[in-house]
Amino acid sequence: MRFPILTILTFATTTLFGQTVQKCDGPVLSIIADKIGKANQKEIADFLLTFGEECRNNIEYSEWSNELLFSLLDKQTDLTVNTIEKEEKRLEMEAILEDLSSPLLDPNIKDIISRIERVKIKKELKDKIIERLRTADGKAN
Cβ distance 51 to 24 under 8 Å? Predict the structure, then answer.
């Protein structure tokens, strides 16, 4: 009797908490695009989980995810940065950091940096994010 219960619990746990978001997942981008400014932490986490090195060759995904990343940082700075910190071990941080150093549009990077500097997260992570944004700002000027 224990085995079926264990199997059901394992399946339920995997279904409820397993990562269902795929890398380069376009439908997740649609969801976050509709929620910019009012996205919750799970939606932002799902969005961040779509980033991956394998997405570099997907031009449509790359451009849209880059634009959305900067929009989230602009409109929901605290929640986005806190979500990055909370989910850091599950995220492909290098792919996200690479996007931060190469914005495709013209976001107000100085304002974003200023707001990120006020967010209370680990110094090492904050420094990495700000360093990449300063790189982007240097490219723009």
Answer: no
What is the per-residue pLDDT across 15-41, written as a single tens digit (0 to 9) for each?
A: 445 558 999 999 999 999 999 999 999
Quote the CA–CA distance of 21 and 28 in Å, as a whole number. 8
Q: Whole-prediction pTM value?
A: 0.85
How many residues in the chain?
A: 141
Q: Could you tell me if 130 and 109 are in contact, meaning their C-beta atoms sit under 8 angstroms apart? A: no
